[in-house]
Amino acid sequence: MTGEFVGRRVVVTGASRGIGASIAERFAAEGASVVITARTLEEHDHLEGSLADTMARCAKYGTVVPLVADLADATDRARIIPESERILGGPIDILVNNAAAGIHQLSASMSLKHRRIMFEVNFHAPFDLAQAVIPSMVERGEGWIINVSSSSSDITDGPPFPDSPMGTTNAAYGATKAALNRYTNVLGVELYGTGVRVNTLQPVKPVASAGALIHLAGRLDPDRFNPVEVIVEATMALSSCGPDLTARICVDGPLLGELGRAVRELDGTALLDPQPS
């Protein structure tokens, strides 16, 4: 533990499993007070992990409090920041918009309902939450907003077209992340000079989370995955960066290399061994 975030108030969305749960654990280990959100408190209908499980993981650390909210519902998600500020006793210092809805279907047959769900969760929700924390961040002269993105936002060059593990089923999901990237970039530009840093962060390799392993099982070799600690460490870096690291579309491994920052275990006490290449 480095104690890097002692006294910081943090909100992490999508914290019932995978990347979000790991980010919450590291913040808690580093002394932050954390509100974790997801759609349900107990088990998901088809994935392992829950807010209750994340709470259990973090029980040996400091303050970690669950807040159940449906990010696809604008009215419900409007509760998150006011209730988090009440729970934690003050304004939010760090917002990590990690939650995502991924519905992978062919573009030619993707329903409007499914497109709307993904845009609500992956695009509108992060910016509703950002707009809720920005006034107090600007007033205090500092704050950090990290929006977790994806390389699925990249344009496919060709023909010939390269093979993709997700085939052609991630266009709508990728479109939400492309929108997230662009809006983050402009928001960071708008807020430059206020002390509020706004960046997106995506993994250089797929993260070996439960969801990724289900979607990509049999389509990627195990060595094509990165341990979750890499994107967690990059999140920590973007949650304590200076005011000039803003409006960036960041990739976890290259960002850590640029900053000369080594990857630590989730409890923050030791360096990950071996360090990812």
Question: What can be said about this structure in brief?
Answer:
Belongs to the short-chain dehydrogenases/reductases (SDR) family. With 277 residues, the protein is of the alpha/beta class.
Architecture overview:
There is one protein chain. The protein has helices at 18-29, 51-58, 74-77, 80-88, 112-140, 171-191, 210-216, 228-238, 252-259, and strands at 9-13, 33-38, 64-68, 94-97, 143-148, 196-202, 249-251. With 277 residues, the protein is an alpha/beta fold. It has one domain: NAD(P)-binding Rossmann-like Domain (Rossmann fold), CATH 3.40.50.720. Helix 5 (112-140) packs parallel to helix 6 (171-191). The mean pLDDT is 92.
What is the element layout, followed by pairings?
Elements: E1 9-13, H1 18-29, E2 33-38, H2 51-58, E3 64-68, H3 74-77, H4 80-88, E4 94-97, H5 112-140, E5 143-148, H6 171-191, E6 196-202, H7 210-216, H8 228-238, E7 249-251, H9 252-259
Family: Belongs to the short-chain dehydrogenases/reductases (SDR) family.
Pfam family, one: adh_short
